[in-house]
Amino acid sequence: MPRKPDGESGGSAGEFAESRFAPAGDGDGELETIGTTVRSTRRLLGMTVEALASRAGVSTGALSQLERGQGNPSLQTLQRLAAALSIPLVQLLQGAAQPDHHVVRAGLGPRLPASSDDTRDLQVLRELLTPSGGRLQVIRSEVPPGFSNEGRSYRHLGQECVVVLSGRLRVSVGQEVVDLSQGDTITYDCTAAHWWANPGKETTVVLGSVIPLAF
After folding, report:
1. C-alpha span between 2 and 76 (Å, rounded)
2. Could you give the strand order of the β-sheet that contains 204-211, starting from the edge strand earlier in sequence?
3. What are the φ/ψ torsions at residue 187 (nearest 5 degrees)?
4. Which of 6, 141, 164, 213 is most exposed, with minimal Cβ within 10 Å?
């Protein structure tokens, strides 16, 4: 369970004590909106009140109170709840529903930073094709010929599926190394050490999707 900030106790009084959220206008109405957003998002994720409270580091009593549109939650509490629900804080405060669709035009997706400070990782162009902060992440990557991050294996929570759209890709997962060609797909557990390489003479284009194990 995440550690509670100093000055907050395990009960609802402490969680709603300092840096209180003060909605403008109809405070009760806005608090009800926040409570409804928390409850509906929690249910959408299949989480119990106890599970969300544990993940956010608040008491179940305080969370139940908030979902009923009661109490006076601190901004810190709302920030932790938003993070636990994987939604932007502004969505929690405004109660705005996520759109039914998300369009990214070809070549116009947000560019992701390099996965490390190594200059070789700067060679890989990574384009995010899904909404940031969502439970599903799809990334289009262009891997230049000769690239390899062997010796700099990555391990993190989640499961990843990679489809080779063009070119060749060498993927190492644990102690196994697999060579992929256009149209090939590999899915692996990201908790195993893994790395990529492009053994070909052309840029490799891959489409990767990642789902965190927390969901």
Report:
1. 13
2. 125-128, 137-143, 204-211, 159-166, 185-189
3. -125, 135
4. 6
Share of the chain above pLDDT 90, in %: 35
Q: What is the DSSP letter of 123?
A: G
Confidence of residue 97 (pLDDT cuts 50, 70, 90): low
Tokens read off for 53:
């409270």
Query: Got the DSSP string for 14-57?
Result: HHTTSSB---SS-HHHHHHHHHHHHHHHHHHTT--HHHHHHHHT
Mean of pLDDT values over 16-28: 44
Q: Give the pLDDT of residue 85.
A: 85
Closest CA to 196 of 159, 145, 157: 145
CA 100 → CA 38, 40, 56, 131, 138, distances in Å? 19, 16, 27, 12, 17
Encoded tokens for 82: 């938003």
